[in-house]
Structures
1.
Amino acid sequence: DTWRYAHEEYEGDVQDVYAHKFKEYIERESDHTLQIYRFGELGESDDIMEQAQAGILQFVNQSPGFTGALIPEAQIFFIPYLMPTNMDTVVEFFRTSKAINERFPQLYAEKGLELLKMYPEGEMVVTADEPVTSPSDFAGKKIRVMTNPLLSSTYKAFGATPVPLPWGEVYGALQTNMIQGQENPIFWIESGGLYEVSPNLIFTGHGWFTTASMANKQFYDALPKQDQQMIQRASEYAFNETLKHIDGLADRSLKKIQAADSDVTVTHLSEAQIDVFKERAELVEKTFTEMTGSSGKELLMQFKSDLAATE
Amino acid sequence: MTSRQHYTSSLPGPLGWLDTTLSKVEALVLSASVLLMALNTCSNVVARFVFGEGLFVSGEINRILIILITFAGIGYAARHGRHIRMSAFYDLLPTTSRKVAMILIAVMTAAIMFFLSYLSVHYVVTTFERGRILPALNIPIWWIYIWVPVGFAITGIQYLLTASRNMQSKQDVFLSSCVTDSYDNDTPQP
Amino acid sequence: MALTLIVIMIVLLLLGFPMMIPLTAAALTGFYMMFDGIGQMDTFIQQVIAGIRPASLIAVPMFILAADIMTRGQSASRIIDMVMTYIGHLRGGLAISTATSCTLFGAVSGSTQATVVAVGSTLRPKLLKAGYSDPFSLALIINASDIAFLIPPSIGMIIYGVISETSIAELFLAGIGPGLLILALFSLYCLIYATINKVPTEEKSSWLERWQATKRAIWPLFFPVIVIGGIYGGVFSPTEAAAVCVFYALILEFLVFRSLSYRDLHEIAKTTGLVTAVVFILVGIGNGFSWIISFAQVPQAVLDAIGINDMGPTAVLATISIAFFIACMFVDPIVVILVLTPIFAPAVAATGLDPVHVGIIITLQVAIGSATPPFGCDIFTAIAVFKRPYWEVIRGTAPFIAMLLLASLTLIFFPQVMIFSYI
Ligand code: NA
Ligand code: NA
């Protein structure tokens, strides 16, 4: 059969790499073919999610952050300093966490989706008009965020002023100083040229951009056992290959940025500086539990115990 | 296009009253939504520039207003014969053939509008079942889609009325139930 | 499948159906063929709604509203009167004033349609009285409105910028040069036309009259200052500039000139809503149509067939120009930008073309296409506003389109025309 898979990024981005590895495995191990659609081809993030729920698409990749309107608990990935910054620990966490491998599949199943894999895309990096090392440095700075209450709560807690703005206006707004900063994984800062207009890169270590690949549950459940197992193996294969791809991706992107623009500064927060921000993250945890109730609280507890087990 | 004459329904009795009232409601929704959109967007600029903090709900409010304008507007446009059409060949036809063509066009357009209305009801129900919400306003998304089937249905009814008006009248060709198909022949427009 | 859809669309269009019907019928046929029935047609509705979702789209009603307030009040006529005192007396001066007014007005308005309405309603009667033929006047108004699309702010650039992730502020700056180039070409043609047809010249204004007209126009002349200053000063985004224009227009007409009443405002806002709805339903339905085309992988097949991946930069630019120009002869410019930009994105990236340059070319092509028969939207706007038959509106357009194509060739081969860009 021809199966259809849509994701939210452009050619060569992390989700595209994952999708193509997934395709490669499926087409090698079975007679099925996989048609991949990139960002915008079938609409935006919410659109492709609905199409996957309707069964028009067999597979969809959507970041939990965008899934918030559907599964509020998925916004847990926006809570700052919930995950380690060290890549190896993060990978270990994604492999072993009960929250990710047991609790989340249930949440997705309630919405008619078979969660295949959650995987990290990269560490979030803040760019700003000057280097920032403390909440007081953030004072008075307007930082662009996606329209999401948790993200806004995060930057309020960090001392900045969150400003919701569509992605298409970010570059222009940074250029005209309408906003003074934004956050994104480093490979987006590089490919979007954001460092040209916001040259101070700050590695705050507050979070990883996480994403998830899933199937329409009805479609998946109706498949023969061997196809289901093949899809699981394909997900595992794509996951491992994607980890290889992102390992060193941040360093490569950073090198490119530094080669392209000599005004760029790079700030890595020290342990002591991070602790100051970490203290403030508790406010965001409160916002999260207010938004998600007891189910969110449970998930948060599970997350924390999983993390303790990893570290 | 700047005429101030009010729409008067071609329907008799209470149905006519309902139709005329509906037309007034549509006009009010249109003008109020457009002005609210200006106000909302400017407030966001002021809030960000003067008070340093943008309004989180601003974008979602505009999204609601765009849907309101579009789907309240298509019915209103059908009422006033304002939907864009390519009339180069149609204009060449003699009056009787134009009348037949217009009846055919109106009936088919109405049928497609009713079908779209049916599909939209289906989509609104699906959205309701999936429970998606607007993150900043925290309201269910299906609420803001309700105008979609309503707008398509009203447009369909208007085209049916157009067809019936064309069947009743002897001479004129009607673009909508109250607008005849003609160009002004005296040149400069006031 | 592509062929079936195109045939359905063209037949229904020619029969005189409202434009949303051919697009809807073709799209629903596409769904029927892809999914063997009506089971998945919900997605069409989803995409119709998604089509009118982008936040930047609010610029459309806002610019139309601002232009309408200025036209029904005094701002537009004050600007036009001022332009007339300076160049009205030249040979072809009235026609040149029309083109110049479109340019000045373009610094406020983001859409060609709004410019057709604002400049056309004021100047067309004058052009006819002065002895210009109606087809020439209509063609001039429709095509000079293209300049307004290139002079910032521009809805086309906003939408292209959003989709292609190109800086809208950079696009805005880059559009000024080509806009002025077209103004120069048109002025030259007006001069030649007036000379050949012996159109009498107007009386020359005295410097006192000029000074007075300038003084009267001083408040409206602040529009561009506010728009450009606000955007580059970081006060508001290009989309928000449209709403700020509305606000300033309201202050002028209600508080300074006292030329409008609240009743007028309701009327103007209602008309704006009506025009917006008529355009947006096409934007939405066009999006639904493009979804099924994209799902069936039609554009990729077509582009592969013509071998876009083996083309050099100039050939890619030429292909883009032709595709956008032809598409805009049939479909609304906003829809065209929405549908075609992502399709060409890989080829643009692969050939290393400057996205700003590509954006300006696309904006120009879209503007030209919008005034080109058979279906250019400015033609429909002119038919709707001036209530003239289709044929009369398009009769005089050929020379203008030729000049515009000359301008686009210049832009393709000499990107330096974009004199105000950062590069
Ligand atoms: Na403009
Ligand atoms: Na035009």
2.
Amino acid sequence: MTVKEFRLPDVGEGVAEGELVSWLVAPGDRVEEDQPVAEVETDKALVEVPSSYDGVVEELFVEEGEVVPVGDVIISFRVGGADGASADAESGDTKPTDAEPDDSEPTSVEAESGSPSRRTFAPPSVRRLARELGVDLSAVDGSGPGGRVDERDVREHADAEGSDPDEDDATDPKPVEMDTGDRKSAVSKRGSAEGAGATTAAEPGSGPEPAGRDRTLSTPATRKLANDLGVDLDDVPTDETREGEAFVAEEHVRAYAEASARPDDEAAPPAGEGGSGVETEPTPADPATDAPGETIPYRGVRRTIGERMEQSKFTAPHVTHHDTAEVDALVAARERLKPRAAEVGVKLTYLPFVMKAVLAGLREYPILNSELREEAEEIVLKDEYHFGVAVATDAGLMVPVIEDVDEKGLFELAAEVSDLASRARDRSLAPEELRGSTFTLTNFGAIGGEYATPIINYPETAVLGLGAVEKRPVVRERSGDGTGHEVVPASTLPLSLSIDHRVVDGAVAAEFANVVMDHLEEPLLLLNE
Amino acid sequence: MVVGDISTGTEVLVIGAGPGGYVAAIRAAQKGLDVTLVEKDAYGGACLNRGCIPSKALITASGLAHEAGTAEEMGIHADPAVDLARMIEWKEGVVDRLTGGVEKLCKANGVNLIEGAASFVDDQTVRVAHGGDGQGSESIEFEHAIVATGSRPVEIPGFSFADEHVWNSAAALSAESVPDRLVVGGGGYIGMELATVYAKLGADVTVVEMLEDVLDPYEDDVKRVVRKRAEDLGIEFSFGEGATGWSEASDGGYLVHTETEAGEESTYPADRVLVAVGREPVTDGLDLERAGIETDDRGFIETDDRTRSAVEHVHAVGDVAGEPMLAHAASKEGIVAAETIAGEPAALDQRAIPAAVFTDPEIGTVGMTETDAEEAGFDVAVGEMPFNASGRALTTGHTDGFVRIVADADEGFVLGAQIVGPEASELIAEVGLAIEMGATLEDVAATVHTHPTLSEAVMEAAENAQGQAIHTLNR
């Protein structure tokens, strides 16, 4: 009988972490191999994580809604012989011996495992590096045999934390704070005599609940500070532990002393004007998080979009070319084909026509169907035509991919777009349906508007934005006498083409746009495609 | 000669030039800090002057004499005559060479050396009183201080080290002659080492120990090996008794009085009595309270994992900062103190501090025992290799003892080792490295060890823990 830990697997291309949306099992449940145990929202999809073991769920290490890096332990199973009793005893009363498990820090290997043999093994040079980088070794996943932590693991962990600083709040020993300032503060601590005030204010009822432990670990400096501030260390709330004992750090003591010294008004919700407010209304914002406005977590799909946009816009110098196609003929063609499409259950939009027109343009100007590989110093011209189609969903922008546009008919494209779009909104796309595009279309005109400055779906070279097809005034030669011009209403399609100016220049972009427009204005040409 | 009070300033003030203090001073100087090292007695501290080094010199010399006289089995017939005075002189030479080296190293690294006794004036100033004929004193202002004042032997009621026949360890290491009868109060490692020295030099030695065995913290099978060898050397043991005092005997010698917990009294005739019941930190005269530092109930300065006391810019290292009272622990702490002051992220993060006892045979330990590991919750794998199965041990004539290696059964990580036997103090280093590096039994077992050496026993023990030993039966 052993306890097996299960780490969040890599569920998709380049996915570094996922939000654990919901648990499908609970401790004590029997699971079979491949049975889904959790739903995880990754970059762009909601996926089910299957178990690798037959066994009984021992412990869940991650709360629903938490963001978990790939490779972190999320669940453990008891597998093998069913001697549950010893397993319970083991996980129940033994604690890691030399970690500093912070119970609120589920990424800590130590805290998760409940198995004492999970002490962190790392050579002295690596331990020093961890201190230099402010990395809590117990939170690092070792890549060596048996989880031994090496230098690379620490550096990678530090990098990961750099982009996600709120993950690590229990690093110890702390990064160096030094020198005379430090010394001065130590000295003044001894002299500061606000202690008396703090003591009286720390009476029960006025401040935070005293923790009232029997034993508390802390450094001598912290003990001294507590003494100076008139705080009983055993009363200071903490969620840090050392060797299984509660551990109190200086900041805990200060926070507790401050909170204790503060009068009641902070603890109580702001009273309403009348007598009724306090009991009936929900308590306004928690004083601790009372910041103006509302806070929305920046993670999951939102953060992925943000990171992609950042990468694209900060990497590729964008230039956007705008033009307008006169599409009366296209509108007419679509009207004629619509009933035929409906007969085979397809809703025909303008998008398949645009895709074919773009295809024509790309065939003539393959440089726009390319990818710049900076490191290799080469531009790869793609011989496939896989179009990403931007879809707005509740969770944010998704870009499912229509493969091989050159091999599909209009109806086929229409059906596929509609299927992918609706599944994008359900969040039921597979990761592979979201990757591999060579050119992207964004149809913001479906909502309204004329022109935009679309951001390239990096590392592609171009993106085409479509405005709304509407009747707009256009200037034409006056019919008949050929002597002047007139303004007439015509269906037009505004186009916004963004290109990576590293790869291609504006002139080529304009020429490409002309080919696309040509095919939109004379849809019969699309028969070539 | 300085008369009166002059005032100077330093970035780092180190008090005490033992293995904690001088190492801290040199490292701090290497980090570009302005360092002043104050020593009131002798550079090198207790370790070099009255402890590790002199005792090892006498252990080696007495061992050599004894071995030469007891090697008939190897066909050597000798009756060595020991000139203790000459032996002590040789020992002093070794000590002088080392302490002189410490002084030179400090100077070469730019450490400012001051002789005198330091006491705190406040948390930024000490006064150093110069001993001898320079009655002057000087004030030194510091930004950071490192207290490294060490420890001294504990006196017990009824025995005063001022009496000529009452020895502490320092006196035992500077004796002019070998006493006929030596009573050793205390069967700890210092008592056992010196009891062995004098037994080998021909004294009748009796060890009186309050507990029921010698070498208290060690495991029973480790103790047994050392005790049996001591008994073979003629050392007698009285357990469960504590020395309470002495009286003069009619033969010109003394009687050492002991008492059991139940109150039963005994006496042991002696010419000298060595009191070796432990060491206590030296903080008197330092006026620590003026710097705002308190000591715990045993007199130690409490420190954190970066050697800082409650007053953060005052560090404490070595014996004065508490257990383990070992020179190499002091040196490590000294380095951490210096690097912390220099703004580096140093910390006392070692997994294990090895320890050695230079009895016959030696004991070397590092990390966890089997019991420690079990209590820590590990699934434990243990492997042993007795030295009587080691070819090299047989050729030295010393086959008592064994190597035991303790590991985590799941992943094979080495957690500790206990070695009792020839050169155990040297052999333990390999296991220390294994522990710090997170090496596994496999790593140790698969490392090729020189044949024929004692170090093969470590490899064999690792193999034994894996159930794959060649030269022992796997348990």
